[in-house]
Amino acid sequence: MTDLRRKIMNDLDDRISRLNIPEPDREYTKKSSLRWKNRRIYFIQAETGEIKIGSANNVRHRLECFQIGCPCKLIILKSKKIKELMPERELFKKFSKHRKYGEWFYPADELLDFIKNL
Questions:
Q1: pTM higher than 0.70, yes or no?
Q2: What share of the chain is helix, strand, coil (3-state, %, to 5)?
Q3: How far apart are CA 112 and CA 105, in angstroms?
Q4: What are phi and psi of 64, to 5 degrees?
Q5: 80 or 9: which leads in pLDDT
Q6: Maximum Cα–Cα distance across the chain
Q7: d(Cα 56, Cα 35) in Å, to the nearest integer?
Q8: Burial letters for 30-52: b for 16+ Cβ neighbours within 10 Å, e otherwise?
């Protein structure tokens, strides 16, 4: 491994460790679990077609935050209350072949049917 590659890999490992992403099977404190009490999975679509999958306690507020930095109109396709901590990760895997970038996906029939039947 070259020095540059090693430096890049170490930098990436450092950045990932600073994200503090909880493990799915981690035991959550009562205070922490309260944050998830009203958690909803959401599907937000841009007028260009792409769909964002995510979760939030307040989906309308999340939409407003995204809209500020987005030049195109965004709409909430659907949101649903969830009990699991990170179901969007499962959805990211399920629809990975339709991923455009990050948490945004192409509006494939498979994804649109899933949203419609949710």
A1: no
A2: 45, 20, 35
A3: 11
A4: -60, -40
A5: 80
A6: 50
A7: 10
A8: eeeeeeeeebbbbbbbbeeebbb
